[in-house]
Amino acid sequence: MVSFLEFEKPIAELEARIVELRATASVGDINIDGEIATLEQRAAKLLSDTYAKLTPWQKTQVARHAERPHFKDYVAGMFDNFMTLAGDRAFADDQAIIGGFATLGERKVMVIGHEKGDDTASRVRHNFGMAKPEGYRKAIRLMELADRFGLPVVSLVDTSGAFPGVQAEERGQAEAIARSTEACLKLGVPMVAAVVGEGGSGGAIALAAANRVLMFEHAIYSVISPEGCASILWRTADKASDAATAMQVTAQHLKALGVIDRIVSEPVGGAHRDPVQAIANLGVAIEAELDALDGMSADALRTDRADKFLAIGA
Q: Which whole number is the average pLDDT over 16-42?
C-alpha cells in the first residue's frame, strides 16, 4: 500500500473502500465487480485531477515522499555495471553522496548522487542525504576522474541541503560546496544533472552546475527550504505553504525562468506510485540530453555551461 499524504485523503478513502469490496467479493457469492470498477474509475480520475493542480507546497510534500525512488533505485533500474568509488582521499567516505563508474545504455558514464536511505538504519547511515565536506570532495574526485577518462557525468540530486552541523563547518563545508560547483563548471566532458526529489540550496547546486539540468515534474529546487524561508520572513514555519508559492520552487516555474532545461514526466500520482516507469522516463531523458551533447569539444562544453548559468535572470 502507498502511504498517502494529507491532501490525498479523499483518494485514500476511495482506495480503502475498493480494498474492502474486493475482500468482500473474495469470500462471498455476491457479484460486485461493477461497483468496484466504478470506484476504480472514480479513484483514478480523482488522482489525476488532484495531481494536475498541485500547489507548490503539495509538490514539496510529494518531492519528499519517503517512497519515492532513491539513488540506489536509479542505479538498479537505469544503469548497468555500477562500480562504487569510495572516499575523498583526505578524510572519510561520506555515504550521503555515492558515485562510481556505470553504463547507461551503450554509454560509459560516471554517475554521482545523493542517497537519503529508505528505512531508519539506512537514513542514519546516509545522513538523510545531507553531505559533509568529504562528500563534496569525493564528488570532485570522481568528476576529475571522469574528465581524465573522457566519461560523461550524470548526477542525481535529492537533498534537503548540505549538512549544517559543527563538524561540517569545521572541515570547510562552504569551501567544499564552492569547489564542487567549480568542478562541475570546469568539466571538459558532458554533464547532465537531474533533480529527482528535493534540490536544496548549495547542497544541490554543488552537483547540478551541469550543461543540462532536468527535473521531475513533482520535484522542487530552491535556495532554501520553504520552512526555512518562512522562519526567516515570518518567524514561523507555519507559513511554509506561502513561502513555497512565493519562492517558485516547482519544475514548471523553474523551466519558465530558465533555471532548468527539461521537465521529466512522472506517473500519475507521483514517482512513488510507479517507480519503474519513473526511472525509465528519466533514463530516456538523460540519454537524449547526452546524445545532444555528443561531439562537442571540451572548450565548447565549458562555454555552453557558463553561458547557461550567466543567462539565468538576464
A: 78
- CB-CB contact of 196 with 208 (8 Å): no
CA distances, 100 to each of 47, 91, 107, 143, 154 (Å): 37, 18, 14, 10, 10
C-alpha cell of residue 144: 576529475
**Cell 548559468 maps to which residue?**
309
Residue 32 has pLDDT above 90, yes or no: no
- In Å, the largest CA–CA distance within the chain is 72
Show the cell assigned to 180.
564542487
Using the structure block, give the residue that is written with the C-alpha cell 500520482: 269
3 state DSSP class of 38:
helix
Tell me the backbone φ, ψ of residue 213, rounded to 5 degrees. -115, 120
What CATH number belongs to 60-311?
A: 3.90.226.10
User: What pTM, to 2 d.p., does this model score?
Assistant: 0.92
User: Is residue 286 helix, strand or coil?
Assistant: helix
